[in-house]
User: What shape does this take?
Amino acid sequence: MPMSTDAPWDSGPSRAAFFDLDKTLIPGSSLFLLARGLHASDNIKFRLIDIMRFGWGQAAFRLRGESDKDLGRSQRSGLNLVSGRRQDELRTWCVDIAREWIVPRVYEGMVEVIEEHKSKGDATFLVTAAPTELAETLADELGMSGAIGTAAEVDDEGVYTGNLPGPVLHGEDKAAAVAKRADELGLSLAESSAYTDSVNDLPMLELVGHPHAVNPARQLKRLADERGWPIKEMRTSRKGLVISIGTGAAALAGATALAMRQRHRR
Assistant: This one.
């Protein structure tokens, strides 16, 4: 059972392993899969065109890689998508989508890494710029101790306002969130580990005593080689990844075209 972060950890783990999500535990973007899942579920509470706009932003992330511009665009489209919706509804949808669309795509090798840390008594946390609701659902499905994600503002009625009360967990802000969680739970960062694919997470990697590069892009791979950090390569062939991206993008393209035709007929 995942450990509750609300309970005292007086006799709990003294160290942890922190895992990035996109391109580290899964190929590509979890939010892209969330958009595909929302579309596939025929959820009439979301406008198809809004889902497609959101999905296209995530498709760009998969093809081009992570950038501040892409993160800003994803943030705006994601907030627009949930604005006015109830948080409990999104949590319910996240469970179904996580089980059908995301968990089956988690690299088997990374599941083994998580289980190895758990067998040693380490706490395990998912740390991602993805929404807290999705992050917590995935952590629960993977039997992890907890998750740290980006929190969207919710009003007193449990409805999303379309605003962010804090930063998107990226770069320095992600490292700060990890440091805060470690301090709250009395975890030794010097004895802890971190896993990520992106040099944007360098602050998090430098925060712990045992950094790991997973499926690293060129810049992080070069840095890991220079510093002697372990490198884990989980990706399958490039061809297989491109086919996967192309299939998802084609599905979004077809749905977008259909949505636009329906819109013009009104």
